[in-house]
Design goal:
It is found in: Cytoplasm; Cytoplasmic vesicle, COPI-coated vesicle membrane; Golgi apparatus membrane. Its main location: cytoplasm. Oligomeric complex that consists of at least the alpha, beta, beta', gamma, delta, epsilon and zeta subunits. Keywords: Cytoplasm, Cytoplasmic vesicle, ER-Golgi transport, Golgi apparatus, Membrane, Protein transport, Transport. This is Coatomer subunit delta. The longest helix has 41 residues. The chain is an alpha+beta fold. Helix 1 packs parallel to helix 5, helix 3 runs antiparallel to helix 5 and helix 5 packs across helix 6. A nine-stranded mixed β-sheet has the order 11-13-9-8-23-21-16-19-18, with no helix packed on it. It has a four-stranded antiparallel β-sheet with strand order 14-15-20-17, with no helix packed on it. It is extended and about 100 Å long. It is built from nine helices and 23 strands. Strand 1 and strand 2 form a beta hairpin. The N terminus is likely disordered.
Length: 524
């Protein structure tokens, strides 16, 4: 870009662009060419090019500026005019206003766009739409990075909430100990006991099938004057030490070097084991979970497709149990629902509301695991189009080698996470030679299985492939292929709309967890 009265304001932009395309020209030479252009341009001329002894200036006026193309005299002027015409179409796409200020504000965007059109002094065969697409830089790696970053932020927030709850519990126990003369429960050293208590009379009845797991902090009934002995106090003296010897450690390290997965010994903790899921922070949590069982044929076609889903309810405080749950079923005609025997089926069939047959009884609180199951559903189909992920495996023997090509095709209905495709292999002395893979791979030498993993499958990678080479083997060795993955959407598309309080007032705050996972997903 240059003009007679603005050439001194934008020389850095012009110099940068010309230096990018003419790597053998010095900066002084480029600045000299640009400085000479305003003196050569006359007024009232019809043609849009000026020739000197060495170069040709091809230009086009754009309001108060000039779009300038500097070439040698041997260049084809028709191609230069076509290049100039394409560049003139790109300028309004990136500049807010066609003046000096607008050009300076979007200088870098224009450099990148022009760089897609001209490469090393020659025009690329591109259109305006292609240039805009190339400059958008929609990166799959950036999506993965943002996904990992979001998961870390969510884990940190859950950890903060968990710590805040622990601090509140410690304050409450400390205040109880100061008022009643008892020590805090943590200092008494006793474990936590899980007991299954069946509700009778005031609950669901002994035959209802509902129960809840109550954590009881047991403590010894000692007198106030006698100090409580800590069960966690270390014994006096060293005693016998248990651990791995140096030779054992060397053996484990050698196994790890061969690709084996070594599971370290975990010392059992006193008390009930907690699941790896995030701790409950809201008064009411509803979990929608679907398990997918699929059997695909290696030659194409669907042998089995079944989905089993559950809606579970977890309540922290008993006072929040006097509620009804209003849901939306998503309208999938292939899904058949079944309510719990203690849930009012007519209320669900007519209004999509899940409530107990006896509204005077609350839902049980303090449930461990996934809580109380309110609703179950099942879906079966023979339509191959509903399968979220199809796998094609093509083994072919050529000489002393077997070439195996595996492809996946993912449906646009789901974004799949943590996808792992496990391919059985014949017994090998070393890992297979992977020629091409979309994602990551890992070879388990003990099980002789090649695992192909893709962190995320979305609209940017609905299809992918992997190719590897092994010694000659029969094609049946590579089957059955197992697949596992998770997704944030479900086939039923069940959603919790609201909680309806039975005693009036505001409904308790609730959260919903939704996940689709594989139970048994194979290609046979």
């Amino acid at each position: 870009f240059s003009c007679a009265d603005a050439i001194c304001s934008v020389p850095h932009f012009c110099t940068a662009l010309l230096s990018r395309q003419f790597v053998d020209m010095s900066r002084i030479r480029i600045e000299g060419l640009l400085a000479a252009f305003p003196k050569l341009v006359g007024t009232g001329k019809q043609h849009t090019y000026v020739e000197t002894e060495n170069v040709r200036y091809v230009y086009q006026p754009i309001e108060s500026l000039y779009l300038l193309l500097v070439t040698n005299k041997q260049s084809n002027i028709l191609e230069d005019l076509e290049t100039l015409r394409l560049l003139s179409k790109l300028v309004p796409e990136y500049c807010f206003s066609l003046d000096e200020e607008g050009v300076c504000k979007t200088a870098f965007e224009l450099i990148f766009a022009f760089d897609e059109v001209i490469s090393l002094g020659h025009k690329e065969n591109v259109t305006v739409a292609q240039v805009k697409q190339y400059c958008e830089m929609d990166s799959h790696e950036e999506k993965l990075h943002n996904l990992v970053l979001k998961s870390k932020i969510d884990e940190t927030n859950d950890l903060m909430k968990r710590k805040a709850i622990e601090i509140d519990k410690q304050k409450i126990e400390k205040s109880r100990g100061e008022k009643g003369g008892y020590l805090p429960l943590q200092s008494m050293g006793s474990g936590r006991i899980d007991s299954e208590i069946s509700i009778g009379g005031g609950g669901f009845g002994s035959g209802s099938g509902f129960g809840f797991s109550t954590d009881v902090d047991s403590f010894s009934t000692k007198s106030k004057g006698r100090p409580a002995a800590s069960a966690t106090a270390p014994p006096k003296g060293l005693g016998m030490k248990l651990g791995k010897t140096q030779r054992t450690n060397q053996f484990l390290e050698s196994l790890k070097a061969e690709g084996e997965v070594i599971v370290e010994d975990v010392r059992p903790s006193v008390g009930p084991s907690r699941s790896a899921a995030a701790p409950l922070t809201d008064p009411v949590t509803l979990t929608v979970e679907e398990k997918l069982s699929v059997t695909l044929k290696r030659d194409g076609g669907l042998s089995n497709f079944a989905v089993q889903g559950t809606l579970s309810l977890q309540i922290l405080n008993q006072d929040d149990g006097f509620i009804q749950v209003q849901v939306e079923t998503g309208g999938n005609p292939g899904v058949s629902f079944q309510t719990h025997p203690n849930v009012n089926r007519e209320l669900f069939s007519n209004k999509n509301i899940l409530g107990l047959k006896d509204p005077n009884r609350p839902f049980p609180a303090g449930q461990s695991g996934d809580g109380v199951g309110l609703l179950r559903w099942r879906m079966q189909s023979v339509d191959e189009s509903v399968v979220p992920l199809t796998i094609n495996c093509w083994p072919s023997v050529s000489g002393n080698e077997t070439y195996v090509s595996i492809e996946y095709e993912a449906s646009s209905m789901f974004d799949l996470q943590n996808v792992v495709i496990s391919v059985p292999l014949p017994a090998l002395r070393e890992a297979p030679s992977v020629r091409q893979v979309d994602g990551d791979w890992r070879y388990d030498s003990r099980s002789s299985i090649l695992e192909w993993s893709i962190l995320l499958i979305d609209n940017s990678n609905r299809s992918g492939s992997m190719e590897f080479v092994v010694p000659p083997a029969d094609s049946s060795v590579f089957f059955p292929i197992s697949v596992r993955f998770t997704a944030a959407n479900t086939f039923s598309d069940l959603k919790v709309v609201n909680l309806l309080p039975l005693k009036g007032g505001q409904p308790p705050k609730f959260s919903q967890r939704t996940q689709l996972s594989t139970d048994e997903y194979q290609v046979v």
